[in-house]
Design goal:
Order of helices and strands: HEHHHEHHHHHHH
Largest sheet: 2 strands, antiparallel
Low-confidence stretches: 14-20
Shape: globular
Strand order of the largest sheet: 1-2
């Protein structure tokens, strides 16, 4: 029986030895942009036209439309921050790739959570489930951020830009509170979801300022 030898140079070892070039970030950015575009497309496809032709029929779709707007804003916030974060990176590692996929997994659940919550806007469980998706997406973003910092080093542009990151620490706490409040008063949970979105809508120029300082 012939036993084939194991590969002498696994990809990681070969890259360390200089046999393979470092992994660039271009494919990661392109893939992420494509997935996020598909997520938005799926969400808008869940907006079905009213059955009737009156304003009353349109009003029945209002909760679904408002929830779509909220989710669209959240996806836009993640796309914006993701773009700025990757702007500080030149090359990625396998850990960064997997952390990015982990983030995209939770973002891909936005259409499901949006449709369920929008179709049952007064129900506690769909509202709490929406919060769980928001919470896990926030955790996944933090993991990706830490993976990049570990790859780039503690003195990297991203590490300097993140700093204390009070919004990144406050948001998961507000999501968790909203999940619990969903079983008390649904509108309280909805209010916290909107509050967090408004916090992140405020322009965050930390990374831009780091680049401006570097250029100076």
């Amino acid at each position: 029986m012939v036993i084939l030898p194991a590969p002498e140079f696994p990809f990681a070892r070969a890259r360390i030895l200089g046999i393979l070039p470092p992994m660039e970030k271009n494919r990661l950015e392109a893939f992420s942009d494509g997935v996020i575009a598909i997520i938005i497309t799926i969400m808008v496809l869940e907006l079905h036209a009213p059955d009737g032709t009156t304003l009353a029929a349109l009003q029945e779709k209002l909760p679904v439309f408002l929830n779509y707007i909220l989710s669209f804003i959240y996806v836009g916030i993640y796309w914006n921050n993701h773009h700025h974060m990757l702007h500080t990176v030149k090359r990625v590692s396998g850990g960064v790739l997997w952390a990015n996929l982990h983030l995209l997994f939770w973002l891909s659940l936005f259409p499901f959570a949006t449709a369920w919550m929008g179709g049952h806007h007064r129900a506690a469980t769909p509202t709490a489930a929406y919060g769980c998706v928001l919470l896990m997406a926030a955790v996944a973003y933090w993991i990706l951020q830490q993976a990049i910092i570990a790859r780039e080093g503690r003195g990297s542009l991203l590490a300097r830009a993140v700093g204390g990151d009070w919004k990144g620490k406050l948001s998961p706490l507000l999501y968790f509170t909203a999940i619990l409040l969903a079983f008390v008063q649904v509108w309280l949970a909805d209010s916290l979801y909107i509050l967090v979105a408004l916090l992140w809508l405020v322009p965050d120029r930390r990374i831009e300022k780091i680049f401006e300082g570097k250029e100076d």
